[in-house]
Design a protein that fits this description.
single chain; 1% strand; globular; NH4_transpt_AmtB-like_dom; Ammonium transporter
């Protein structure tokens, strides 16, 4: 065990949890109507709780068990069977590696929340998120990070797909799942009401930005120069994408908005995530500059041309950003084109198929969408019996 590595990953674990609670909750919560903000908080918080338990029970062993098939890790580490405080994973206590990866298993299904806010049934959120994490996310983790068939020595030869911190594992899977759910749900009855609290959006985005240092820097799994470089390029990509999004907004619409500026931040962060261990500062500037424009144009394509109500633009920002960053690894010569594109296609097809199956299965168990009256009145009061803002108190 290395004490410095262990100390850094303990901090990184806290930072990644901070991304979901409270960062993502505030970012998403500020973007919805005032009558739905508590439901967004509820979704993020409940997902964090449920994924933690499921990761302990089955998720970790599916992703990082000792199975040799290349498809999944087996069940030998259910409930951390055989893992003690003295067990090691590289230079880290294995229980710490488990906890660090648990925070990724929390935020990935939580990202999907943005696609279905303001109209989804709470039961569906819990059942679908739990099944999706176990049957879609955890196997993909094994394929790429757990020594599976897409990793080094797998179907792409000695050098497998390069995905440093989750462009494919986190952002492509969550983005595609979000798009599928939004398609099946159908649009909200009222899509024109603006975000109720842009201040929340900015605060949440700022928390995500800080937390992302643990997300990308921690993925080095060591306290060394590689972690420092990953942290640095993460910051530079986020800063550049924020400005390029705002500039493109100004050129197209005559005004640059706060919500646009901070959405650009998230686009830059998602785009640099897979490449953060393989590129330097100049490449990070390029990735961020393109991401701010590319993801904004994808928002317009999905909203206006495809007419899919991915409410908070999960696919356009996270999905497209993660896919773009994964491709840029090959563009900059840090990965093989066949491996990068091949893994994107394989994981994409798998994610779409599993998500469609789970949406249909979950809809047979619990209501996919709330009724019109509940949607009109807001999920806070109709589903959870609470109001975020009581003006009479």
């Amino acid at each position: 065990m290395n004490g410095a590595d262990t100390a850094w990953i303990i901090v990184a674990t806290a930072l990644v949890l901070f991304m979901t609670l409270p960062g993502l909750a505030l970012f998403y919560g500020g973007l919805v109507r005032a009558r739905n903000v508590l439901s967004v908080f509820m979704h993020c918080y409940a997902i964090a709780c449920l994924m933690s338990i499921l990761w302990l029970a089955f998720g970790y062993t599916i992703a990082f068990g000792n199975g040799t098939s290349g498809l999944w890790g087996g069940l030998d580490k259910m409930f951390l069977n055989g893992v003690t405080a003295d067990s090691l994973s590289g230079t880290l206590p294995e229980v710490l590696f488990f906890a660090f990866q648990m925070t990724f298993a929390i935020i990935t299904p939580a990202l999907i929340v943005g696609a279905y806010v303001e109209r989804v049934g709470f039961g569906f959120v819990l059942v679908f998120s739990g099944l999706w994490m176990l049957l879609c996310y955890a196997p993909v983790v094994h394929w790429i990070w757990g020594g599976g068939f897409l990793a080094d020595g797998g179907i792409f030869g000695e050098t497998g797909v390069k995905d440093f911190a989750g462009g494919i594992v986190v952002h492509e899977t969550a983005g595609l799942a979000a798009l599928i759910i939004a398609f099946f749900l159908g649009p909200r009855k009222n899509r024109t009401i603006p975000p109720h609290n842009p201040g929340y959006v900015m605060i949440g985005a700022a928390m995500l930005w800080v937390g992302w240092f643990g997300f990308n820097g921690g993925s080095q799994l060591a306290a060394d120069g590689g972690a420092a470089m990953a942290l640095t390029v993460t910051h530079l990509s986020a800063a550049t994408a924020s400005l390029s999004w705002a500039l493109w907004e100004k050129i197209k619409y005559g005004k640059a908005s706060l919500v646009g500026l901070v959405t650009g931040t998230i686009a830059g962060l998602a785009s640099i995530t897979p490449a953060s261990g393989f590129v330097g500062p100049v490449e990070a500037l390029i990735i961020g500059a393109v991401a701010g424009v590319l993801c904004q144009e994808m928002v317009n394509l999905i909203r206006n041309r495809m007419q899919i109500d991915d409410t908070l633009d999960v696919f356009a920002v996270h999905g497209v950003g993660g896919i773009f960053g994964t491709i840029m690894i090959a563009v900059f010569g840090a990965g093989a084109w066949a491996a990068q594109l091949g893994a994107l296609v394989i994981v994409g097809i798998f994610t779409v198929a599993v998500t469609i199956l789970l949406v249909k299965l979950t809809a047979a168990i619990t209501s996919l969408r709330v009724d019109l009256e509940s949607e009109t009145n807001g999920l806070d009061l109709s589903v959870h019996g609470e109001r975020a803002y009581d003006m009479n108190s």
